[in-house]
Amino acid sequence: MKQLQKAGVIGLLFSSLLMLFSAAVAAGGNKAMVEPIFTRYARIYQAPTLDFRTEFFKDKPMEEAENFDGYSLFLDFTWPINDRSQLQVFLPFYTNGEADLIPSGKPVDIEGYNGVRDFFSLIYERRFSWLEDVTGVNVAWLAGVGWSLDPLDVTLGSSTLHDRYNHSGYNAQIGLKFDDDISGGDMSLLGNLRLIMYIDTDDISYSNNAAFQVLSATGAVMFNQYGRFTPVLEAILESDFQDYTAFSLAPEVIYTLADSFDVKLGIPFRLTSDGQKYAANVELTYRF
Question: What's the total number of domains in the chain?
């Protein structure tokens, strides 16, 4: 069964890549709005946008397991409603990796159609038009809800089901975003601040609590003067207001294959003792 599931995921991935690449080759006419992997614009998108991201991670923190190495797959679709608001649909749809149980140290496989602390989410974003008029900077607020769709199965050996992670729970989030172009448009600055409140979860918190909060702050500087290549440096901060605070830097490069299609590569690595050691993120962005 697992082999069939893996084959299905590989088939979905290949089909998605083929669809996006074919569409990109034929696309034209949409003005490019290049965006980093982790930090989103406050300005409203100019076209419906689909992001497909694969994250390969090392030592991702888990409540009941350690040394968790593997990968996750995500889809992110954003629909601009008008020039002031948009709706984001976020779907973590597959995770696969290996870890050691706490405290026994037994090796386990972790696999399922979900993320680790990522829930299927609906997020509404709206510009602060009056604040933009005062500051000259793009500013927006966001609010969203999410819930866990499917568990991550934890197996000992090849078939013995030991536990299930991220099989229940909800979250709510609020946040602020800003962005601005500086140096005559040669550089762009972006910043996002989110408070994510998890409710009635299981096995995914940083400190063994079913209900917990995570403050997520990201910032990015984009260098826009290199044609189709856009170098980016992002900073990522996460804290649960208790014992967990992680800070990472993520150098990135974005290649704009066509006006409607970007390929992105980011390598976040931690500068603190908390957080995953490092990761490799590959994201494909298609603007319809």
Answer: 1
Q: What is the pLDDT of residue 57?
A: 97
Q: What is the pLDDT of residues 156-190, one digit of tens each?
A: 877 788 899 988 899 999 999 999 999 999 999 99
CA dihedral for 82, 218, 55, 106, sign (positive or negative)? negative
How buried is 232 (Cβ within 10 angstroms: 0-12 exposed, 13-18 middle, 19+ buried)?
Answer: buried
pLDDT at 153 over 70: yes
Cα 257 from chain centroid? 22
pLDDT at 213 over 70: yes
Name the H helices within the chain: 2-26, 129-135
Tokens of 20: 């996006």
Residue 159: domain span: 2-287
Degrees to nearest 5, angle at CA 104 with 99 and 105: 35
Q: Take residue 47 and report the two structure tokens written for it.
A: 């076209």
**In contact, 148 and 171? CB cutoff 8 Å:** no
**CATH at 158:** 2.40.160.40
Omega before 103 within 30 of 0, i.e. cis:
yes
Q: What is the pLDDT of residue 5?
A: 47
C-alpha to C-alpha distances, 209 to 19, 62, 116, 163, 169, nearest whole angstrom: 41, 12, 15, 17, 12
* Beta bridge mates, 175: 142, 194
For residues 260 and 19, the model is more confident at 260
Model pTM score: 0.87
Pairing of strands 49-60, 278-287: antiparallel
DSSP bridge pairs for 251: 233
